[in-house]
Amino acid sequence: MLQDQFGREINYLRLAVVDRCNLRCTYCMPENGLQWIKQNDLMTDEEMIRICSIFTDLGVSKIRITGGEPFVRKNCIQLMESISKLLGLLDLTLTTNGLLTTDYIPRLKAMGVKSVNLSLDTLDSERFYKITRRKSFDKVMKTLESLLKHDLKVKINAVVMEDENIEDIIPLVKLAKENPIDVRFIEEMPFNGGNTPVSLKWNYERILEHIQSEFPILEKMEDPKSSTAYNYKIPGFKGDIGIIAAYTRSFCGDCNRIRITPNGELRTCLYEEHGINLKDELRLGKTDDELKSIIINTIKHKPKDGWDAEKQNASSAESHQSMATIGG
């Protein structure tokens, strides 16, 4: 089992398969997009499968496929099917914006995917367009309907933004009343690909107070080990509510996660500025054992938390990155 210097077991890998996205969400990237990673600098399917295999050999049992939008990558579903067959992998999950997902849902279920995180910041089509700069709300709702129809566990991820979607918090909570949906509200983070400042007024405490003002019977649940969310339930609701303190970073203490960026960088913390590039090491001819040694040594130096990682950065460049290039 992989362990860091604080004795934390690392068993969860977030694999970003592409940086490109078919939305332009204001909290993630500028309207005209980003300077995309060149095709040759992206990992190939074979490289991703080999790297994932090395991690499962080292004890990683959960892999989440992220992006960008994963299904913008050609043959992403075939890549996922290959990864799902790796020995030692117990849990393969997906984070998607839902625009291209619907047709793949039967194959996701067939390969053993049990849970899908769906990005959905509003239930209003006009606000959806304002936030994402695309008129694709109906496609996302169709995907949500299909996921539920196929009995896949759905977690909705909603980034809470001042003056953007505050009026959507309560309607999103109500989605969990009649549907087995976990709705999770996320503090806005500084990874928007530009210099746009982030408002911290809607932090974990304020989001919680807002929900409690409508649902005073909100009950705290026991949070699973290494959970990023503070979890709550409302009596009579089929789904649960979660709040992720992504910017205030109060959940970092028992972190079990690492991530691979689309160009192959291993990052042991979301707030790290850089990481070692496993794709480059692989292309230099490193053996699996040599790559394992690199991974083990890198994880040994995983920061204590996001604040520690930020202090170790050489510059403030992390605030100008995008979640699409880090791995959402």
Structure report:
This protein has 11 helices and 14 strands. The protein is of the alpha/beta class. 30% of the residues lie in helices and 18% in strands. It is globular and about 55 Å long. The strands form 2 sheets. Strands 9-10-11-8-7-6-5-4-3-12-13-14 form a 12-stranded mixed β-sheet. A hairpin with an 8-residue loop joins strand 13 (265-267) and strand 14. The protein has one domain (2-326): TIM Barrel, CATH 3.20.20.70. The mean pLDDT is 93.
Describe the structure using short key phrases:
328 residues, alpha/beta, TIM Barrel, two-stranded antiparallel sheet, 11 helices, 14 strands, globular, cyclic pyranopterin monophosphate synthase activity
Largest sheet: 12 strands, mixed
Q: If helices are DSSP runs of H or I spanning 4 or more residues, what is the number of helices?
A: 11
CATH topology: TIM Barrel
Range of strand content:
15-25%
Q: How much helix is in the residues?
A: 25-40%
Head-to-tail CA distance between termini: 25 Å
CATH class: Alpha Beta
**Secondary structure: number of strands:** 14
Examine the secondary-structure arrangement and name the CATH architecture: Alpha-Beta Barrel
Overall average residue pLDDT: 93
Cα gyration radius (Å) = 19 Å
Order of helices and strands: EEEHEHEHEHHEHEHEEEEEEHHHH
Q: How many independent structural domains?
A: 1
Described by the principal axes of the CA atoms, the overall outline is: globular
* Largest beta sheet: strand ordering: 9-10-11-8-7-6-5-4-3-12-13-14
Contiguous uncertain segments of 5+ residues: none
| CATH level-four homologous superfamily name | Aldolase class I
